[in-house]
Fold:
Amino acid sequence: MSDPLLSVRDLKTQFFTEDGTVRAVDGISFDVEPGEIVGLVGESGAGKSVATASILRLVDSPGEIVDGEIVFDGETLFGLEEGPDGEIRPHEEMLSESEMREQIRGRRIAIIFQDPMESLNPVFTVGGQLREFIELNRDLSPAAAKAEAIAMLREVGIPDPATRYEEYPHQFSGGMRQRVLIAMALACEPDLIIADEPTTALDVTVEGQILELVEELQETYNTAFVWVTHDMSVVAEICDRVNVMYLGEIVEHAAVDDLFYDTKHPYTRALLRSMPRPDETVESLDPIQGVMPEAIDPPSGCRFHPRCPDAREVCRTVHPEPRPVDAEPHPTESAAAADDPHTAACVKHDAFDVGYDESRPIDVDATGGFDVGRTERDDR
Amino acid sequence: MSGGQSDDVLLSVRDLTTHFQSDGGLFGGLRFGREFPFVHRDAEPVRAVEGVSFDVKRGETLGLVGESGCGKSTLARTILRLVEPTAGSVYFQGTDLASLSGEPLRRTRQDMQLIFQDPQSSLDPRMKVGPIVEEPMAAHGMLDADGREARAKELLEKVGLDPQHYNRYPHAFSGGQRQRVNLARALSVNPDFIVCDEPVSALDVSIQAQVLNTMRELQAEFDLTYLFIAHDLSVIRHISDRVAVMYLGQLVELADKEELFENPQHPYTRALLDAIPVPDPRSDSRKATLSGDVPSPIDPPSGCRFRTRCPSLIQPAAYDLTAAAWSNTLAFQRAVRRRTFETTDPEAIRERFFADDAPSGAAGDVVDTAIEHLADEAWDAAARLLTESFADRSICATDEPAYEVAPSIGDDRHYTACHLAREDAVATGADASPADVSAREADRHGQPTADADD
Amino acid sequence: MIDMAQTPSRTDDSDESTGGPADVEARVGLRYTLRQVRRDTTARIGTLIVGVMTLVAVIAALDYYLLQYAIAETVLYNPETDPETVRRLLPPVGMENQFGPGVIEHPLGTDHRGRDLLTRVVYGTRVAMTVGFMATGIGLVGGTLVGAVSGYYGGRVDDVLQRITETIYAIPFLVLVIAFMTAFGRDLTFAMIGVGITAIPVFNRLIRSRVVSIREEDYVEAARAAGVKDRNIILRHIIPNSFAPVLVQATLQVGVSILIVAGLSFLGFGAQPPTPSWGQMLSASRGYMLPAPTFSIFPGIAILITVIGFNILGDGLQDALDPRINN
Structure:
């Protein structure tokens, strides 16, 4: 199997604040193959945005990438090595800041943000901004860049692009603006696009249009995506493989079908059970007890144990990392199935041998603080 | 206006209309022209809410769903008279709120409360949570200082928070907890009616579930009536008894929840339902059947406001085309209008739009002429011709729809503002008002009714 | 660039700590602001200067109003009376000018009437601080009232009030104050009131723009929806949340007011002799610039230090009250 397009190994990003060190990303590893869409799912505070910013080395003080290795198409975006005196220093193959800026950001790896109004300058025309982007990154003349920009606008489904080229961001609707951002991301034909919750702020019908567009464009350009979201429905719709994040760690990794139909981690399962469904009336929702704690002071052992319905004593002390939890191979959509096992960071699976079955279950209600969301009627 | 008021109905909205001036200020609305007196006033209002009527029954949860810009938030605020209505009336427990002002209006607010979408901005960052919950009580002279504090702590516990956090500031709480503070505040004055403006939209999914559960429990315990506004149909399905759908300032459908989800009558409702993503990788991916953008509320389409995007636009009576021919013609008309293609070659156009079935007769002539215009690059002329000949002549453009159909599930009346229902409707026009009580019955009881001439 | 704040439209649930009530410190309120000020060195110096000045002013005022300069006479000299031995225009101790050598009894020298400069400079603090606080106070209260009402109600009320304040703002303030004092009286009280009135538009502008934006906040609408009276909404929600920039402006305004009144005294309006006031001392020293320059230098330094002190205190407060840092 060929090397993955993007390889993230043991990434750790921390923020040093006066209240303490926030371990926003605490050792995550995942791959992205060329042309696939990998989902990065988690709730607020899980660290997804910090993770994607780290890939592009856009983390600023008081944050810092403290460990890990990020390799993109053979280039080291981030890596540390031990120097001659034993001190830790940036790997000599690691790209410099200017190399990152000129070669990687916006060119080979593009990023689409959630709120298009934040990414588009309101005082310049949309076309102008797109053209400038193309000019800078593809060394075209202004005239050629303009023609390219109009072509891109048409490609992303903006009608009458020649006229809309001259308009300002506020004259576009939310969905249209997001299409413009997609055009900007695609304009330089990157190998990888990081999409950070691009449809969260959009209405459901518009979201559908955008996702359809992304799927079409992906087929045309064979771009890989890292799709960050908290919406499991979006994940089900477009992702090929999925990573579920909780409090700075990846707790489950699987092909999309396996994630939904063969869920292995209690957090993922609880997440799926707590959502209302449009296709059937659910009598009562099953919320996850408690709230996600702060990344400054994560719980001991397994970070999810204070809220986990399957928690046992051993979960308090053992900190699991993701391990393959599937014995038999089974048909999945992704071609890399055999080399990419379904992993979960939960000690109750056989892959861990820490005596889970013998350990005493702990009462979730009794652990930590006042239980938000619990009323007398919850019988758990 | 009271007397004969059915005990069931808590809130009656009749023909409520809210327009905003897009041009405000001293010189607002002035336009310049070439003829004397060179200047005249021409106010073009934003028609945020237009002629909305419905009832809310005591103890129920009425879900109000629609996309951004449909006017649901404005409707909510107009009902509560935080925004002044331009026309229409709101009868709350028998009294027309439009007739109240000043102190009597302020006192009525005790019975109707509002919960906001954004848990962060709806709490004053400089006030502690306890006083925040007490403030409405103080405003209405409930209890004394000690009593209010005790009740505030009791309410905090009721909504699932630690009463010891009485002295904390809002920023010390998470989003879901702040929303609970909002709940506690709304409940403090014992209201009968609570308008919830997208209360869980800004929360994470697992927290949404917690808060929704709490809201249902509180409703049962305190005998509350909710008007629940949301754009997420999954949430609406979970919490509502009946559901109303809004588009561009108007109600387009109102029915019992199960009826709406299983038997939607309005194309917009169907499009919304089709567009909802399902958290299931094996289900069919949703169909994005709607194209284009929502029209501007300043100059909305005539007749049915949804007609410019409706996939089921009704053929004008003058033509007699097959379904496929009509559908192609419609797609062609819209594509020309929105300029979604580049080619002007007649062959290519016919191939692209009319490959399986082309219109004949008068319609065919119009299409031919339009294609000729396009060959001359006269896009505007082509668009105008097509629009006037087809879209503008449909019954959807000429008549405002209002129909009632027989429900297939349950007994609640099913209102739909779509001419597709004109053959099967059990009531039309004024009799089909989405209000709970029919117009004829209302007359007998001296009830407020929809206008007889709409 | 990513900072600690989570993604914009999703409120995060990671703020909650699981301990008792007191473990999350309040990031609003007086105590927090003071703590922030204490951390900033510049602000501390500013506080020190302002604190010292205020203390001196208070003591001087006490002495003037209640004790008839008893303290002054014991420690220094009576700042107002002409001494019997007329030792005019002496330089500070250690220096010598055409009027004679400096003497130890008058460490900073004497003025043109032989009065001790040190005493007069110290007692001039009373006038300066009184003026500064009172004028700023009038501007603050007046401006807040006008701005808050104007901003909250909008419409006609706003139009009328704003046009009035703009008219005041448009007239050159010195002309306005002098005209005011010519009409009502030349002494210090009217100087303070006049300067205060010219400060009203400044505060009005600040408050009004804050009020207009806060008025749209959800929590204000929530209060209205809950049935809270307008008056209470303005007092409990709008003004406390608008106040930060006003506080900063107030510290700057004190310095400005002092300068203005010093200028007025220079022109003969304001503090009348023999009341010691820096501006008036500067005016008196005009004629003696070359022979006895130190006469004008010390009052000038006093003004300088005072205004700088208030300004850097204002800077420090600005940082402390910056909501971005607080959140």
